[in-house]
Recover the amino acids of this structure.
């Protein structure tokens, strides 16, 4: 969609908790709970699944940011990606944005797009390339050594290479578990895990659910494995 935004989304709460899986992106979000002022925040770069509880009728508008996109108030992306930020704490422009949303909530989607263009610098080219292709390239050759690679990737994306490679493998395996017919043991081998137990540990650590549950309750998780992520929108 742009150099900084890879997807738009919106949701209305039914009162049930919403499960969020790590997808390699941070999101710029406006949340409108009935009878309350808008909440505007930037999520962290998630490393585990979590649930969001909201009253019935709460509205969410979000922009999924490209990996490595950096806000004007962020000096070190590695530090910024570790925790979410309530935007009105980030200066006068963010506070004015929250006031504009409060005055004109029906225009939230357009206001978010304007804010993303004004507040975020595009990702470093290295960040986009590594996230898109790091899983199937030898990245050691262009650099003096593994330590140089790890440092540059961490600076460009907010997380070290192992974060991206592990998350890519788990997300890809989860999609095949939900949509495929191969046994879990076969899928573990196909996705480079040492065995089925290894795959179970990694999927559980990242997604909060075992491969067996994903396979058994595939209809429940189909939406989570097909939503846009950092990997399938940058390739």
């Amino acid at each position: 969609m742009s150099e900084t935004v890879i997807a738009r989304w919106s949701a209305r709460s039914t009162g049930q908790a919403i499960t969020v899986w790590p997808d390699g992106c941070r999101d710029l979000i406006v949340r409108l709970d009935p009878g309350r002022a808008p909440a505007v925040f930037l999520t962290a770069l998630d490393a585990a699944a979590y649930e969001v509880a909201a009253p019935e009728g709460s509205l969410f508008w979000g922009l999924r940011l490209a990996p490595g996109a950096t806000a004007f108030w962020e000096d070190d992306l590695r530090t910024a990606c570790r925790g979410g930020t309530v935007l009105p704490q980030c200066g006068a422009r963010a506070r004015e944005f929250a006031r504009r949303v409060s005055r004109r909530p029906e225009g939230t989607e357009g206001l978010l797009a304007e804010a993303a263009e004004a507040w975020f610098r595009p990702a470093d080219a290295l960040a986009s390339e590594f996230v898109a292709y790091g899983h199937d390239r030898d990245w050691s050759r262009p650099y003096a050594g593994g330590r140089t690679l790890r440092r540059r990737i961490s600076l460009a994306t907010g997380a070290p290479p192992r974060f991206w490679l592990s998350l890519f493998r788990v997300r890809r395996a989860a999609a095949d578990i939900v949509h495929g017919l191969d046994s879990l043991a076969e899928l573990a081998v196909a996705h480079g895990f040492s065995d089925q137990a290894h795959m179970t540990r990694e999927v559980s650590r990242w997604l909060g659910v075992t491969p067996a549950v994903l396979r058994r309750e595939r209809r429940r998780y189909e939406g989570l494995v097909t939503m846009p992520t950092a990997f399938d929108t940058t390739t």
The chain has a mean pLDDT of 87. DSSP finds ten helices and nine strands in the chain.
